[in-house]
Design brief:
402 residues, alpha/beta, Enolase-like, domain 1, TIM Barrel, eight-stranded parallel β-barrel, three-stranded antiparallel sheet, globular, binds D-gluconic acid, binds magnesium ion, Enolase-like_C_sf, magnesium ion binding
């Protein structure tokens, strides 16, 4: 069964999403997500100019061989653009294999390890009170885990706090918005948020927090220690993680569990973190870490060292990624938690899908393959719109991590 054609579909039903559609000579097709927030067109070009030409005529069943061909055959390995493109091909080929087998992908990955996938949602607000009001609504709706992010007093805006209460889209401008950052003010407010969070929400719900790469290891150690009385599920992206050694220093100072990895692209980005047990959760996901095949490899490696998964699931990852992640989540022994943010209704209209949320747990449908489709006519109604993620500066104008 050969690959007859492959096309990239770009649509913006609220935000830009890039989808690869691979068609076979037997009429069966598969979908893969290739969205790289704020850099979408670079992956489109990589796919169109350098990947699709070498796919045509290949045996669509040979998922691993095609993965190896695209990875080793590029010579210039790794990186978010290359790995998102490979991920899209890999995901689409698993979709095709599932459809041909008449089975949902999780069955091809070994079958279920659990009945449902625990997800965490995002509660955010400009103040602690606003944040906890939203969190209370989520708790009443049955969520078992809630991420808390609030505004930092004195700052006009900060990561994780949206203009809209229920949707969060950080890529908010056709040129980067400039935010101001203040670490001491941030370090004061987060323990207050968690103290008030436990008072308001009690102890039978998991609470999470994303630092979004903004602290030094020693600052992260202090925050982790300050939060210990409130038992957070995890602290995410404590420091910019180019330096895997940094996590050793954080570990020396706190027993708060650590998560990292949404921007990682391969196992090589987290090998040391995992084998030295410097983290508790690895957040790599399908679209930016080489597809279902490579994410599974990362998960299996992590399992050996007692590290669990907590896949990235922000709205810049399309419903195709969400479905693919759920198939992996269901089929691995060391699943930890899955991030979940609702997409806009327009996005769900473009991507009909079978996965559903019930009482804090997500499940896929038993449709063959991924269980997600794309309505190309509807997708065409939402043309690409350039959008950048914000950038951050310190009060004195120094460029900082966003
Ligand atoms: C998360 C992430 C996102 C990222 C976004 C960037 O934990 O969900 O940090 O909110 O900022 O995916 O494109
Ligand atoms: Mg994050």
């Amino acid at each position: 069964m050969t690959i007859r054609s492959a096309r990239v579909i770009v649509t913006c039903p609220g935000r830009n999403l890039v989808t690869l559609k691979i068609e076979t000579d037997q009429g069966v097709y598969g979908l893969g997500d290739a969205t790289l927030n704020g850099r979408e067109k670079s992956v489109v070009a990589y796919l169109e100019e350098h990947v699709i030409p070498v796919l045509i005529g290949r045996d669509a069943h040979r998922i691993e061989d095609i993965w190896q061909y695209l990875y080793k055959g590029a010579y210039w390995r790794r990186g978010p653009v290359t790995m998102s493109a490979i991920a899209a091909v890999d995901t689409a080929l698993w979709d095709i294999k599932g459809k041909l087998a008449g089975l949902p992908i999780y069955q091809l990955l070994g079958g279920r390890c659990r009945d449902g996938v625990m997800v965490y949602c995002h509660a955010n607000g400009t103040s602690i009170e606003d944040t906890l009001e939203v969190a209370q609504d989520y708790k009443s709706a049955g969520y078992k885990a809630i991420r808390l992010q609030c505004g930092v007093p004195g700052l006009d805006s900060t990561y994780g706090v949206s203009k809209d209460r229920m949707f969060y889209e950080p890529a908010d401008n056709d040129l980067p918005t400039e935010n101001v950052w203040d670490t001491p003010a941030y370090l004061r407010v987060v323990p207050e948020l968690f103290k008030a969070g436990r008072d308001a929400l009690g102890w039978d719900v998991h609470l999470l927090h994303d630092i979004h790469h903004r602290l030094t290891p020693i600052e992260a150690g202090r925050l982790g220690k300050d939060l210990e009385p409130y038992r957070p599920f995890w602290l995410e992206d404590a420091t910019p993680a180019e330096n895997q050694e940094a996590f050793r220093l954080i570990r020396h100072h706190t027993t708060t569990p650590l998560a990292v990895g949404e921007i990682f692209n391969t196992l090589w980005d987290c090998k040391d973190l995992i084998q030295n047990q410097l983290i508790d959760y690895i957040r790599a996901t399908v679209v930016h870490a080489g597809g279902i095949s490579h994410l599974r490899k990362i998960a299996q490696f992590a399992d050996v060292f007692g590290v669990k998964t907590g896949c990235h699931g922000a709205t810049d990852l399309s419903p195709v990624t969400m479905a693919a992640a759920l198939h992996v989540d269901l089929s691995i022994p060391n699943f930890g938690i899955q991030e979940y943010m609702r997409h806009t209704d327009a996005t769900y209209d473009v991507f009909p899908h079978g996965y559903r949320l019930s009482n804090g747990y997500m499940n896929v449908s038993d449709a063959p393959g991924l269980g997600v489709d794309i309505d190309e006519a509807k997708a065409a109604k939402y043309p690409y719109k350039r959008a950048y993620l914000p950038v951050n500066r310190l009060r004195d104008g120094t460029m900082f991590d966003w």
